[in-house]
């Protein structure tokens, strides 16, 4: 089960990594290539999956190729909606998912997610 602190730290970590990449700090690091796997939660034609794929490409480009993020469609690595579990278990290093899929782990997820009705 995820604690609020763990989810908060994960969110802060992702923001910090993105900020470092945007200012070009990655170019000053060693030349070794880092490869991450990232999964969205929808099919290839879903707008959120298309955004996920473009984000992975943009991060790879912004890092100068030092951090390569391989994008996978929902359900191709782990069952769709279980991406956060896969990050926690080390199967994925990044994911793009809906917070509402994780209400069992984080009761406040509905506050930062869109819900019908």
From TrEMBL:
Keywords, comma-separated and alphabetical: Signal, Transport
Gene3D superfamilies: Bacterial extracellular solute-binding protein, family 7
GO biological process, one term: transmembrane transport
PANTHER family in the cross-refs: C4-DICARBOXYLATE-BINDING PROTEIN DCTB, PTHR33376
Family, similarity comment: Belongs to the bacterial solute-binding protein 7 family.
Name used for this protein in its record: C4-dicarboxylate ABC transporter substrate-binding protein
Organism expressing this protein natively: marine sediment metagenome
Record lineage: unclassified sequences, metagenomes, ecological metagenomes
């Amino acid at each position: 089960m995820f604690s609020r602190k763990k989810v908060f730290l994960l969110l802060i970590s992702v923001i910090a990594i993105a900020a470092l990449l945007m200012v070009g700090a990655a170019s000053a690091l060693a030349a070794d290539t880092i490869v991450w796997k990232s999964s969205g939660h929808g099919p290839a034609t879903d707008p959120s999956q298309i955004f996920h794929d473009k984000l992975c490409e943009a991060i790879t480009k912004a890092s100068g190729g030092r951090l390569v993020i391989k994008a996978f469609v929902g359900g191709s690595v782990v069952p769709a909606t279980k991406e956060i579990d896969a990050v926690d278990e080390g199967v994925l290093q990044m994911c793009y998912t809906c917070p509402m899929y994780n209400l069992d782990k984080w009761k406040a997820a509905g506050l930062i997610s869109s819900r019908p009705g």
